[in-house]
């Protein structure tokens, strides 16, 4: 099964600004870099999603420092980067076309924010026919809400997703399939 690693919204705003600091952000960065390293050993595509605003003054305004992909991630120049303007990674982006053109059958999800862009994108992927996806256990993160702590939000969503929209898998148990050429 041909795979792609999809890293959503791991942008400087969640690392540089204390009021937007992701829960467990340092561990998340290590986990995502571990996934990237594993993916690269078998030439699995590593795709970055970058939330983008085109309205000056808004968070994540294009080309501002907080909009940039987190500098501690092992991103390489050949890694595709798709800019999105909504929570859904597929909405008005070329991601689906790219996945189809590259015959991707399984998406491995990690990134931010659990209850917004990850949840929306995971469900959209499922509805678009990607029904054998993996979400990395504690491989997504978010901020505390007025109702729940970030760790509770993550646990709740992993429970909802598992064996419905994806398989929630510890990073140590993810198996990247070698890319085969036909």
Overall number of strands: 6
Q: How much β-strand is present in the residues?
A: 15-25%
The figure for the number of domains is 1
Q: Helicity range of the residues?
A: 25-40%
The CATH superfamily title: Isochorismatase-like
CATH architecture: 3-Layer(aba) Sandwich
- In which order are the strands of the major sheet placed? 3-2-1-4-5-6
Tell me the CATH topology: Rossmann fold
Report the uncertain regions. Answer: none
Shape: globular
Order of helices and strands: EHHEEHEHEHE
How is the biggest beta sheet arranged? Answer: 6 strands, parallel
Integer average pLDDT: 96
Return Rg in Å.
15 Å
By helix and strand content, what is the structural category? alpha/beta
Q: Count of helices?
A: 5
Distance between the termini: 13 Å
- The top-level CATH class is Alpha Beta
Could you characterize what this model shows?
Residues 4-146 form the Isochorismatase-like domain. GO terms for molecular function: hydrolase activity. Its EC number is 3.-.-.-. With 182 residues, the chain is an alpha/beta fold. The longest helix has 17 residues, at 25-41. It has a single domain (3-173), classed as Isochorismatase-like (Rossmann fold), CATH 3.40.50. A six-stranded parallel sheet has the order 3-2-1-4-5-6, with helices on both faces. It is 30% helix and 19% strand. The two termini are 13 Å apart.
